[in-house]
Amino acid sequence: ADFVALLDQFLRGLASTKNAHGSLASQTAVVVTSELGRFPIINGDLGKDHWPEAPLLFFGPHFAGGTTWVPTGKMMEGLPVSPTTGAPGGPGAVNLLLDDVGTTLVHMAGMNPTLFGYNGKRLRFLERA
């Protein structure tokens, strides 16, 4: 609850702060993530093990909004999606990697991802058309 309140305060601050180009919210991309996910089942020590899936939230005018991508299976594992449309399954569907997110964000910033060590897939479904 504390994090959500602080994130809300931060996003409202971006919306209410302006410069010569408009509000900072109209110029800023915000990505919120964790360094790891947690296994969805309690282990023998009454804790949760690390999990390779990590949730990400994307805020800002540069992202296609109002959508949840990457469906999960029964064990909350990420399922394959199209890097172009974000649609689950089908031809060309792949499991996404954090390298794909980095590749996409660096490309969206107008730079060459490979110059920064990113070699992932560009996730066009994240980009505002």
Low-pLDDT segments: none
Q: How many strands, what sense, and barrel or not for the largest sheet?
A: 2 strands, antiparallel
User: pLDDT average, as an integer?
Assistant: 89
Shape category:
globular
| Structural Rg | 17 Å
Q: How much of the residues is beta strand, in percent?
A: 5-15%
The run of helices and strands is HEEEEEEH
Strand order of the largest sheet: 1-2
Please, how many helices?
2
Total beta strands: 6
Structural class: alpha+beta
Distance between the termini: 33 Å
**Helicity, as a percent range:** 10-25%
Describe this structure in words.
The protein is α+β, with helices and mostly antiparallel strands. It contains two helices and six strands, in the order H-E-E-E-E-E-E-H. The protein has helices spanning 2-16, 98-108; strands at 18-19, 22-23, 30-33, 37-38, 50-51, 56-59. The protein is globular. The two termini are 33 Å apart. The mean pLDDT is 89.
Features:
alpha+beta; two-stranded antiparallel ribbon; 129 residues
Task: Characterize this entry briefly.
The protein has helices at 2-16, 98-108; strands spanning 18-19, 22-23, 30-33, 37-38, 50-51, 56-59. It has 129 residues and is α+β, with helices and mostly antiparallel strands.
